[in-house]
Amino acid sequence: MSANGRDFYQEYEVFSSKKNGAPMQYQFSLLAPNEEIALVMAQENFMRREPAVDIWVVKRSHIRKMTQEEKESLNRLDNKDYRQTSGYGYLKKKWRHYEQNILDEKEILSWGGDES
């Protein structure tokens, strides 16, 4: 590709939503000379494969990435494993044990004895 070709085409990222109110999901990248043609290309490429109610086309250069320093700030200094759902795996077993010990209606009625 010539220097002029690289300047002519820009990279775009395509996102879509399948239903109203559904989150946008990343689909693919494409090269286009401008936003209008990028949107038409995204519609043509995407709509052939599956339905969509909305499509976003974003120039890649407009997407801001985190710096390495910002990424490092995401690491937690303290241990807060309790925030992770994997830490609650024991609850299913505990709940099953609890349910097995619950008295059912027949057992409770059997305690009544005779009222004759």
Automatic annotation (TrEMBL):
Any Pfam family matching the protein: PaaB
Domain of life, source organism: Bacteria
InterPro entries: PaaB, PaaB_sf
Protein name: 1,2-phenylacetyl-CoA epoxidase subunit PaaB
Species name: Thalassobacillus hwangdonensis
Gene name of the encoded protein: paaB
